[in-house]
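Write out this protein's structure.
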Amino acid sequence: MPDAHCSKCCPVEPPKPEAPGPWPLGALLWLGIILGVGGGAYLCVMWLVSSAL
C-alpha cells in the first residue's frame, strides 16, 4: 500500500490508452481494390438489369 503522504504530494496519473497508428499502405491498397471491384460489379449488375427490361 502506498504511503498516504506520497499520494497527496505526487498524484499518480493512470496511463493513457495508445492511439491507433495510421493504416499501412498495403491495407489501403487492398481496401481500394475491394471497393473498386465491388463498385464495378454493382455497375455491371445495374447495367444488365436495366438492359434486360
